[in-house]
Amino acid sequence: MNLKIIFRIIGFLLMLTGFFMMLGIPFSIYYNSDDISALLQSGIFTSAVGLIIWFFTRDPQNKELGKREGYLIVTLGWVFMALFGSIPFMLYGAIPGFTDAFFETMSGFTTTGATILTDIEAVPAGLLFWRSLTQWLGGMGIIVLSLAILPILGIGGMQLFTAEVPGITKDKLHPRVRETAKRLWGIYVIFTFTEIILLLIGGMNLFDAINHSFTTMATGGFSTKNASTAYFTSPFIQYVFIFFMLFAGMNFTIHYLAFHGKFEFTKINTEFRFYIFFIASTTVIITLVHLPHVDFHLSESIRQSLFHVTSLVTTTGYVSSDYESWAPFSRMFFFVLLFIGGCAGSTGGGIKFARHFLLMKNSSLELRRLLHPRAIIPVRFNGKAVSMEIISNVQAFFIFYIGIVVLGSIILSLFGLDFITAAGAVATCLGNVGPGIGAVGPVNNFAELPDMVKWILSFFMLLGRLELFTVLLIFTPAFWKS
Amino acid sequence: MRIIIAGMGDVGYHLAKELSIESHDIIAIDKNQQRLARIDSMADILTISGSATSLEILKKAKTSEAELFVAVTSSENTNIASAILAKKMGAKKTIARIANAEYLSNDVGVNFKELGIDFMLYPEELAAQETVNLIKRTAATDLLEFEGGKVTVMGLKLDKNTPIINKTLTEVTHQHPNVDFRIVAIYRNFRTIIPSGKDRFIANDQVFVITKPEGIELILKLAGKENIKFDNIMILGGSKIGRRVSELLQKNMTIKLIESNEDKSFSLADDLPGTLVIQGDGRDIDLLAQEGIIDVDAFVAVTDDAETNIITCLMAKHLGVKKAIALVDKADYIPLTQTIGLDSLINKKLIAATSILQFVRRGEIISQTTLEGIDAQLFEFVVQPNSPITKKPVKDIGFPKDAIIGGIIRGEKSFIVVGDSQIQANDKIVIFSLPSGVKKIEKLLT
């Protein structure tokens, strides 16, 4: 294990984190809030720590990054970022406890959007901006960003990229990983800007527009309002949210193709078609079921259903009304939606559409394989046959995922959480969604949970964001054997 | 005409033999002395030993004076390279045999004509097309369509209990005055004969008959055959031909493709969504039984091994499969297959040679085909205005005895030729000829 290069990169990540912390200061000045010194001090402190590590790990003899180093850098990097990222909240006193501050920051970086803040609007502007920014950075991935902006990670860049953007198959947009990272972030920035402008047109102020655009594109779900996005009742703004959540939940390769005027993917991309079909049909079902139970107009009913389906499926976690009060069927349905996830290569978390598709398709083909034991009957995805190695990887992922949810729910119930809350909390954190059901439902939050539970859930968020394997690998003995 | 043929494998050999009979000047190039010796003893040609991509050898063959350069070595790269070189050295036309379909499509914008290759020959594609035709016309051993099916030449094998056995051609024709058909050839005891009205049909004859679309059903009935629609096909061997046949048929038929190589099977399953790809050894009877060989309508064996193809086809026939088609690239086996009971066979090399002959004779000839297993050729000619054959009815034009005019296509209409038929200018005529007749016909028509 090449520790020197590992810490050198972590030092660099901390410098970057410290720099980003201070970006909220202009808003603090504009809104005349008193969090400037907290942001400035923690920003300088974090950068300084990063610089010291960077300085002491200079000139590593061995510049090579292997697979193991890649996994370790990404996992540790995320933990360090969450640790240091929580400093401004504690220093200012917005979130006094370390446990809560760490939970909130991890929820930010992993784009989960679960919060322990009971009065968000009381938090000063600069800190709120930092809170939203953690999601924006975590959405496309801060390591991908580092790859894009700095040439230092030349060798082994692909190892880091794979560890942070695991996915199922690699869609490299460019032969060079650095160029791929640049393009991904470029698309991400363009979408974010577009959303900011549309939200401004919809009548939102600049501060809210920026914050919400950050958290939509990252499929994060943090809001600057206590009532979350329900605060904005304008249908236009809600539709802007819906569409940008949809965009964020798609594979960014598709956006790249669309920007280049290539739209064949609408015909051949299995996952894209499945994604659109699933969201449309689920919306119709939810609308039909809950229509008799609420006094919404049809148009509002459709919008509300679409909003929540999109929000939960893409793992954003925005809420525009309390779906807990809807029909039991809808509640049940929303719980299941926590397990869906966006498309592979999107900023969304969860199991992801591609995996669901491959699992279902493979299982149904298994019946045909029983009839023809010697036949080669592959799963077709995007018009190509998928190798059995990938299927087996997806199956392993699914088993791990469900296993963690079951085990996690049992552990949480040891701390006195009821069945629904425990299952909802684990599912929502592992899937990086945000709101769960029961006591962690859309209008409640995670503040009341025991400290130990918050640590466990923070771990699950990281596990989910890095798609299980990157983190789980580190806990295997084989990983540490050379 | 000075023709250089590079590569004396089966295709080159067949080609050289055919063309030398027609008194062209043939120069054969091959690295292998033995192969050159074999063709030298069989045909009147000049042989040069050496590599077809060697400039010195090409110069020695007087490539600059050649009217046609044909590259049919076993290596695609050699063929392409030597054809380009030959063109640059002054050969008028070049033909190269290729081994993948990609080069035939013009998608990427590589223009092979510009590079110096006038015609690219991909035998696997032609073989696949022929297999598909045979599957579609189930009762026929051979099937050739002219002008989009206006006239069809079918080969049919007569069983012992066929109604027309022991009758003469005249008797059969008189009994069925309403059907337009003409028997153009009979293949009997390894010999092809152009029959006259007095000849009788004998069991095990392979009869070649020309007819119009309306006549096909009745002809089949006369020959004791029914044209069954096939929809369940088993293909053995995922080679280029097997792959292409599956691709062409998978839309409308149930296809099972058996391939022994695991990686190849996966790639086949990847490329052929409508085909059930089975990985296993096709000689394993249990596997074939398990996958329901008893229920298939046609069995196509196209592995690279001729013996495997023949044996598995015999096995399929034994199990009651209605039609078995084998790829047999060893020319020596061709006369055998009909006797041992195979329905149809495909010979890539013969197909390739035929296709090149067609290119050589291009002019008034629209198309030309060699029939598998029998020593005869089918031509389609356009009749020039003022041609001597337009002056008199067919029976009086002095057509050679070793050839026969089968059908006439005049615009949208088609006719089956009888003695009183009158050929007009710009008619397209279908001629069936023994090799000895080819030159005579060419003289008569041009």
Short description:
The complex is a heterodimer of chains A (482) and B (446). With 482 residues, chain A is mostly helical.
Characterise this structure.
The complex is a heterodimer of chains A (482) and B (446). Chain A has 482 residues and is mostly helical. Helix content of chain A is 64%, strand content 2%. Chain A has a two-stranded antiparallel sheet. Chain B has 4 domains: 2-121, 3-Layer(aba) Sandwich (Rossmann fold); 132-222, Alpha-Beta Plaits, CATH 3.30.70; 230-345, Rossmann fold, CATH 3.40.50.720; 351-445, Alpha-Beta Plaits (2-Layer Sandwich), CATH 3.30.70. In chain B, helix 9 links the parallel strand 12 (232-236) and strand 13 (254-259). Chain B has 446 residues and is α/β, with parallel strands linked by helices. In chain B, the strands form 4 sheets. Chain B has a 6-stranded parallel β-sheet, with helices on both faces. A 6-stranded parallel β-sheet of chain B has the order 14-13-12-15-16-17, with helices on both faces. The interface between A and B is medium-sized, with 11 and 14 residues. Strand 1 (375-376) of chain A pairs antiparallel with strand 14 (275-279) of chain B, so a sheet runs across the interface.
